[in-house]
# Entry
Amino acid sequence: AQRAAVELIWTGGMISVSLDNLPDEYVDAVPGFSDKDLVCWQSSILWTLEQYACPAKPLILWDIMEALLAFNQVSPNYVETILYNWFLSWWPDPDSLVSLESMLSSAPNLLHIIDSRHMHMINIVCRRLVLPEMKSVAYSSKHELQSVDVEAVKLWSNLLLHSEAELQRRLVGLTFSAVLYLASGTASALPLDRPCWFPTGVAQMQQWVVMNNNLIPDDLKLLKLEVDKIQK
# Structure
C-alpha cells in the first residue's frame, strides 16, 4: 500500500543507479521496497530537487513532498537521509555537515550567503514536510511530546523563522532598489522586450523597516532613507 501511494503521486522520472555502494541505512529501511528501489527513489528525488534550483522553473514541489510524506510514515530515517544529502549537495560549507543536526544548528548563520531559491525550498520542506509531521506525532501521542525529538522541532522551527526573515529582508531591499532605479530615469531607456518591474506595497515595507529597526541591517536602512528622500 505504501509503495502504491508513493508511485501514484510521483510525476518525476526514475533514475537508474548502481547498487555497488549501497549505504547500510537502506537495508530494510522501508517495507515493500527493495534496496535498489530505495536508492533509485533517493537519486530521483535529489535529481528532481536539483532541477528546481533553477529560478526560471516554477516552484511546484507537491509530488516530491507527498512522496516524502508517504515514505516518512514508515521510515523517518530514510527521509532524513534524503534531506541530509540534498543539503549536502549545495550547502556553502559541506565539510561542516557531519549530520543533519549540524546543518540545522549552523544554518541561521549562513543564510545570508544562500541563494533565495534554495531558501524558498527550505521553507517548503519545513512547512509541508518536517514540522507538520513532527506536530502530528506529538498530538497523536498519549505522552504529548515524549515521542518527538523536541530539540529537532526547535532546530527546524528556528531554521524556518530565520529563513523567512532573510527572504523578507531581501524582498524589501529589492523593492527599495527598484523604486530608486525607476526614480533615476534609467528605466525609460530599457528596450521594449525588457520590461521593468514596478514594485507595490512600498509604504508597508517602509513601515516594516521602522517597526523592526533593531533587526534590520544597515544597508537596508540606508536604502529606506533614500526612498524616503524621493518621496518628499
User: Anything to note?
Assistant: DSSP finds nine helices and no strands in the chain. The longest helix spans residues 150-183. The mean pLDDT is 81.
